[in-house]
Write a structure and sequence with these properties.
heterodimer; A: about 140 residues; mainly beta; OB fold (Dihydrolipoamide Acetyltransferase, E2P); 5-stranded mixed beta barrel; about 0% helix; B: about 400 residues; alpha+beta; Peroxisomal Thiolase, Chain A, domain 1; two-stranded antiparallel sheet; about 35% helix; globular
């Protein structure tokens, strides 16, 4: 039986730079009012913006602060059964002023206010592909406030 | 401006969801009963405002599903003389939005008698947005696909954050939620319309499995099947139809706020950066709007029916309705002063935790309860006799909210 080379693909296109040795989250920033969005958007989301120019793609900070988290204890049904319980979901505050959802790399030792760093890793694989996603991982000894 | 009033209200018993049901038949039943209460016929109606998400199971979401046109189907079913029909959507707050449209039509003079109907028959499970992740233009759905976030994920994060901001261990808010369940399940046990009649002890709640830590299974509402109908008219008509008219003092609808700093259900990210409002101002704003419409303050609200898809919601609603610091809310709950003889009664119906959520009909269940309570028709659940103003609040995905204030008008 021959080993089939699987494609390593992002779980959703456009959330982070891929392929890349140093993947970063992709957002957008409005050149008029500065509003930052994730995922990136072609339309500014600030109701007070005059929309005279369109948002531009930006790479987001790699470090953030844990705003809160959930430890999810049961398996999801198809087609999301690849999220294997238990796993932790965090709301991560980025220096840009937005809070984004992310899978965390661990369910242990989590504390609100702790410093986290983004990394891209495998989420799951099927017969053809290895699906990659972004995670946030606690920074050793990191306490941001 | 014309005043508006509720003159009839009926709900089905809330039952286990998931079995296909004859939608128009069920909705016609409660609609006819609401009309009967006021002594009106379908021909007397000027408009039907309808809301449902109950489409046949396995049905693809084509533009013309029967669910999206339930109001028209009801008009055909009970007979109509060319009335106005509007079908409304606003996630779990849909029925509050439908009610507000009816109220606005009457207050503006566009209609004098309007029937609001809601029905739902939600599939089991924790509200997976099954196909919405296929909509690649939206972040909605990605939280599930990319992050594995279900609805209780958001509620768990909010609950944990609240404990953190109060400087308390997360066990503290678990305890508060367990006390709420114990008290609300006692209310539900007295309500013939409630699906769950079992009284839970706080201990049982804390011993139920953890599903989304810090939320345990019994801190999250089930999904149900149920229908409601509420009949509104202008106040002059109401006074002719009933000697116990209930005034619609306010009906406010809320939407997503750019500056809301708490992660919003079904969203991937917050916005607004450093101009962020106080957390949950998105919940508070429609309540402030309702107070302004009614010319009242929190002190004037005698009791409330709040949308509690998790028991964290009850805590947050009390925070937002009363405008209290959080300690005051916890004190009310821990001293069990939110029952029918308490300082601020909440969810005398038993709430969503006792009914399960028939998503698009849920706010009508709340309006029904406030209406019955104000008229002194709530049986064993009856609030103290001098209650004059009751508030119903609705909350849903995508940033959908509603706040309805009803007032005794006799």
């Amino acid at each position: 039986m021959s080993q089939v080379q699987k494609n390593v693909v992002p779980i959703v296109e456009g959330l982070f730079t891929w392929p890349s040795d140093h993947p970063r989250l992709i957002g957008s920033r409005c050149p008029v009012c500065g509003s930052v969005q994730f995922p990136k958007s072609s339309v500014c989301n600030n109701p007070e913006c005059d929309h005279s120019r369109s948002p531009e793609e930006v790479l987001l900070s790699e470090e953030g602060t844990l705003y809160s988290f959930d430890i999810h204890a049961y398996d999801l049904r198809e087609p999301f059964e690849y999220h294997k319980a238990p796993y932790a979901i965090g709301a991560v505050e980025l220096p840009e002023g937005i809070t984004i959802l992310a899978r965390l790399t661990t369910t242990k030792g989590l504390r609100i206010g702790m410093k986290l760093r983004m990394k891209v890793d495998k989420l799951y694989e099927d017969a053809e592909n290895i699906y990659m996603t972004y995670y946030f991982e606690p920074v050793e000894g990191g306490e941001s406030r | 401006m014309t005043e508006s009033a509720v003159v009839g209200a009926e709900i089905t018993n809330w039952i286990e969801a998931g079995k296909p049901a004859p939608t128009a038949e069920v909705v016609a039943g409660v609609a006819i009963e609401a009309l009967r209460q006021a002594g009106l016929r379908p021909a007397d109606l000027d408009a039907i405002i309808s809301t449902t998400s109950a489409m046949p199971f396995g049905h693809p979401t084509f533009l013309t599903t029967p669910a999206q046109h339930m109001g028209h189907r009801l008009a055909g079913k009970i007979g109509s003389n060319g009335l106005q029909v509007i079908n409304v959507s606003g996630a779990c707050a849909s029925a509050a939005a439908a009610f507000s449209i009816a109220d606005s039509m009457i207050k503006s003079g566009k209609a004098r008698k309007v029937l609001v109907v809601g029905y739902d028959n939600s599939p089991r499970g924790f509200y997976f947005s099954f196909n919405s992740y296929l909509d690649t233009d939206m972040a909605i759905g990605y939280p599930l696909k990319v992050v594995g976030a279900v609805n209780p994920t958001y509620w768990a994060m909010w609950a944990r954050r609240r404990a953190y901001e109060m400087g308390k261990p997360v066990e503290d808010i678990k305890e508060v939620m367990a006390i709420i369940k114990e008290e609300l399940s006692k209310n539900g046990a007295l309500n013939p319309h409630a699906r769950y009649k079992k009284v839970f002890t706080a201990k049982e709640v804390l011993e139920s499995p953890v599903v989304d830590d810090p939320l345990h299974l019994y801190m999250i509402s089930a999904v149900s099947s149920g229908a409601g109908a509420v009949l509104l008219s202008d106040m002059d008509t109401a006074k002719r139809l009933t000697n116990k008219p209930v005034k619609v003092a306010a009906s406010a609808v809320g939407g997503p706020l750019y500056n809301e700093p708490s992660p919003r259900l079904t969203y991937f990210t917050t916005a607004g950066g450093r101009r962020a409002t106080k957390p949950f101002y998105e919940w508070r704003k429609p309540i402030e709007d309702a107070y302004r419409q009614a010319g009242i303050t929190a002190e004037d609200v005698d009791f409330a029916e709040v949308h509690d898809t998790s028991l964290y919601h009850v805590i947050n609603w009390i925070d937002q309705i009363m405008g209290w610091e959080r300690e005051e809310t916890d004190k009310l709950i821990r001293s069990r002063q939110f029952g029918r003889d308490g300082r601020f009664p909440v969810n005398l119906s038993g709430g969503t935790t006792s009914f399960g959520e028939a998503v698009y009909a849920q706010a009508l269940m709340e309006v029904y309860e406030v209406f019955r309570q104000l008229r002194g028709e709530a049986g064993e659940r009856q609030v103290r006799k001098n209650a004059k103003i009751g508030l119903a609040t609705a909350y849903g995905a995508y940033g959908s909210y509603g706040a309805i204030a009803l007032e005794r008008a006799w």
